[in-house]
Amino acid sequence: MVENTDEMTRRARLDAVLDRQDIFDCLQRISRGIDRFDRALFLSGYHPDAIIDAGGLVADPERVYDHGRELHEHGQEATLHHLHNHSCELAGETAHSETYFFYVGRNRDGTNWQAGGRYLDRLECRAGRWKVVFRYTVMEWSGELPTVAVPLFENVADLHRNGVPCRDDRDPSYRRPLLNRRAVTVPADARALSTPDAAKRSAGD
Questions:
Q1: For 23-55, what is each residue's pLDDT tens digit?
Q2: Which class would CATH give 5-145?
Q3: pTM of the entire structure?
Q4: Is 52 in contact with 135 (CB distance < 8 Å)?
C-alpha cells in the first residue's frame, strides 16, 4: 500500500516542528545554565567539540562556561539572558538558527547593565540530540539602566519565604514540588503601589 502523499507531508512537518522545539529547548538550557551557574545544564546545550565566539572569549564550552561564570560572579549580583525572535533552518542532521537576545545584569556597584544582540548557531543532531557546534554572538548595542525600585516588592517582610533567588541549585526554580509558603496578602490600596515614587513617599523620602 502506497502511503498518502498528504500524510507523508504532514509527518515531515510534524518532525520539523519537533526538531525546532528541541533546538529552542537546547538554546534555553544554555541561557538558564549561565544565569543559574549550572555548569551541567549549560554544557548540555553544546557538543563537546563546539566552539563559542563571545567577543573577547573564543573557546570550547567548558572554558567559556568557567570564564563566563568568573566574570559574572565578579561583576554582577544577578543576570538574565532573555531569548526572543527565533528562526531556524533545518537541513537533515544540521540546523542554522538566529535568536535575538536581551541581556540585563545587576552590577555589584548598584548599576544595571543591558545589552541586545543575536546568537547565530549551527547545530547538529547526534545520537538523536540537537546541540550547538558553533555559536557566534553578535552584539548590537549595550548601555546602562537607571536603578528604580519596584513598589510591589519593596518593604515586604516575608518576600523570600518561597525561596531566595540564587545562582545555584538552592534557587526556588529547582524545588520540587514548588509550593506556596506565604500567607495570602492583599494590599489595602493597590494604586499606591503603581509607581516607583509611591515607594519613596511611603518611606518618608
A1: 999 999 999 999 999 999 999 999 999 999 999
A2: alpha beta
A3: 0.89
A4: yes
